[in-house]
Amino acid sequence: MHRLAAVAVSALLVSAPAQAEIKLGFVTALSGPAAALGIPYANGMKAAQKYKSKIGSETVTVIQLDDGSDPAATTRNARKLIEEEKVDILIGTATAPGTIAMTTVANELGVPMIAVSPIKIETADPAKQWTIAVPQPPMLMAKVVADRMKRDKVHNVGYIGFSDAWGDLVYAGGKAAEERGDIKLTTNERYARTDTSVTAQILRILATKPDGVLIGGSSTQAALPLLALADRGFKGHNYGLASLINPDFVRVGGKAAEGVQVSAGPVIVSEQLPDGHFSKKLSADFRAAYKEVNGSESRDGFSAYSFDAYLIFAGAAERALGKAKPGTPEFRKALRDEMLNTKELAGVHAVYNFKPGQGYGVDDRSLVIVKLRDGKWTYAP
Amino acid sequence: MTFDIAAILAVDGIASGAIYALVAIGTVLLFSVTRVMFVPFGDLAAFTALTLAALDDGKTPGTVNLVIALAILAFSMEAVALVRAGGAKGLPRAALFYLVIPIAVALAVRLLAPATPPLPARLMMALALIVPVAPLLDRIVFRPVADAPVLVLLIIAVALHFALVGLGLLFFGPEGVRTQPLTSWSTEVFGAIVSGQTVCIVVAAIALSALLYVGFEFTLTGKALRATSSNRTGARLMGVRPARAGTIAYVLSSILAGVSGLLIAPVNTIFYDSGFLIGLKAFVGAIIGGLHSYPGAAIGAVIVGLLESFASFASSSLKDVIVFSILVPILVWRSLVSVHIEEEDEE
Question: What share of chain B has pLDDT > 90, as a percent?
Fold first, then answer.
């Protein structure tokens, strides 16, 4: 198992032996199928430590474990972090099943946890809630896109998405907008990632004469419907969710993908945001820290989720330090209470407000519309 | 559904049907000569597309390393088998076929790739690189168990498919590719736009099927292959070597898989794991043809392509369900009309 204790604590411990440190247990996937997401998560966490290595006068020690994209390993890692390392907080992980497994351990052993994958958080009994999640839920992403359609005067919208859970989620988001009366979905066409053609589905969509088309696919293969629409000379607007933001989507989609509008976290286009936007200055700091520790530019949204998770933790820990000493159950409880008491905390993705009984703390401000222009995602306010 | 839509769907269906036809003919060819139901066939087509995409970008395709590794493995196995059988004098010949030729092809592609030669050369390079894969896999995986029952061979082929998908992820990465179309020409037939690419696909399918027909009917090698497929022992008594017939069958069907990969690469985004579904639909086509008739397999594959196209118009989420459900009535019909021949007793 991979282990990194990544903060220089020695100098501080020698000079101030009476002080305790705050221990943060971080689980991510550095290997296995989810490593493509897990590695950015880890890089984002490194950047966050660089950005803020001390909370009050306490040093933060991050203990990072690799779960190999396997939920069983996530569970073991979470237990190990709590029982052996006595961490004060858990952050993780790259897969949704792994993250759910981790929340079970956190709830059972009474340790606050911040999820960096979009999961549904059970909040039947707010007193037992130990977990919050950072990412924007898919329903909110769809709502922001639907708002844009309304503004673009796009009323009849054709839908085509993956024949899997993601396709269902995006369709449900579109349906919710239809119930609000914002748009009308004219079709529910599906395709599989391995399909060779979507001509038939596109013909059906075009037969309903839509003003726009909503794409419920992800990464490279989300370009397939756009290519087929372009082949048929479709001139309407195209929309999608953040899952389209991927260099291979732009490469494969080429001209057909031009002009597609998607909802994404503001960090993706932070340089183009207006001055005074909550994310602009912070994203610049995040990118600078990221570049310093990882040696490369950050262009993904995932590392930014780790960064925001760390900021939420740091804010809560600062307030909790006044109540109890790190390493004690009292501190963990205070940390949980303060975490659920987060108010108007600006991150690079969103302004977070958490309260007991709510797993998600983001609002409309967490998503901006970006448009693909000349192969680049550009801010389209 | 208007006539226009039906025409567009038909063109789309025939284009994908022609690709399935190439794979289906290759499947039937391999099955009849070697009795192996070669499940990884579609994977070979997908690997060709990925290889071509890498060559288009001026990168060294992952297939180069794959071919070199397979060649070394196949030659070692052949050498050990030859020495144990006391046939050490056959070593130079084995070295030429299993080691020198595949590695020479791989190295040549590796040297030429960064220069990005013109498109026809890149097509040839991708094809040359994929053709040795199946014969080498045959030597490594199937030759040692050539006399095993059909079911054992099928299960080995399934295992081989999973191994190849894993290797594909390793060599080509998780992202899909799409290459530039071979031609941007297009024409209108009955109100449906027919692209040059579609014409290429259909022409290639017809030409290759015709070529195979001529080869099997009028050449000695073709007749030897047919003899092996109808009766292995009998052919052997007449001086046909089943192992050699098998190798020829693998080379021929690799070419078919390679050509279908080259043709599909500009039409759809191909991933390292896209091949399986292509192979599976071609298999349905081959079943319609009874797994022994080439024209039957080709017609069956086109039926599958058309059915798929119209099914995705009728209900896109149930498309694959519709395509695979036709297997049931077809199998019932086939088992009723065809005379069941007991598989020869295998010791």
Answer: 32
* Interface mutation target, options B317, B320, B323, chain A, most CBs of A under 10 Å: B317
Q: What is the pLDDT of residue B88?
A: 78
Report d(CA A24, CA B51) in Å as an integer: 45
Residues 292-321 on B with a CB inside 8 Å of A are 309-313, 316-317, 320
Domain co-membership, A157 together with A184 = yes
Co-location of A182 and A260 in the same domain? yes
Domain count of the fold of chain B: 1
CA gap A25, A193 in Å, rounded = 35
With DSSP H G I counted as helix, E B as strand and the rest as coil, what are the percentages for chain A, rounded to 5?
45, 20, 35
The average confidence (pLDDT) of chain A is 87
Q: Is pLDDT of B345 > 50?
A: no
Whether ipTM exceeds 0.85? no
Q: What is the pLDDT of residue B171?
A: 86
Q: Check pLDDT > 80 for residue A1.
A: no
Is the domain of A296 the same as that of A258?
no
Cα-Cα-Cα-Cα dihedral sign, residues B301, B305, B308, B310? negative
- What residues 253-282 of chain B have any CB closer than 8 A to a CB of chain A? 264, 267-269, 271, 273-274, 276-278
Residue that finishes a domain, picked among A229, A264, A299: A264
Distances (CA, A) of B14 to A165, A224, B298: 31, 19, 11
Q: Residue A307 has which token pair?
A: 């960064």
pLDDT tops 80 at residue A15: no
- How large is the average pLDDT for residues A246-263? 87
- Tokens at residue B244, please? 């050699």
Looking at per-residue pLDDT, the higher value among B137 and A11 belongs to: B137
The residue-averaged pLDDT of A3-27 equals 57
The minimal CB distance from B9 to the residues A200, A223, A231 is found for A200
- Contact criterion met (CB < 8 Å) for A193 and B9: no
Range of the domain at B219: 3-332
**What is chain B's percent helix, strand, coil content, to nearest 5?**
75, 5, 20
Task: In whole angstroms, give the CA distance from residue A346 to residue A76.
Answer: 33
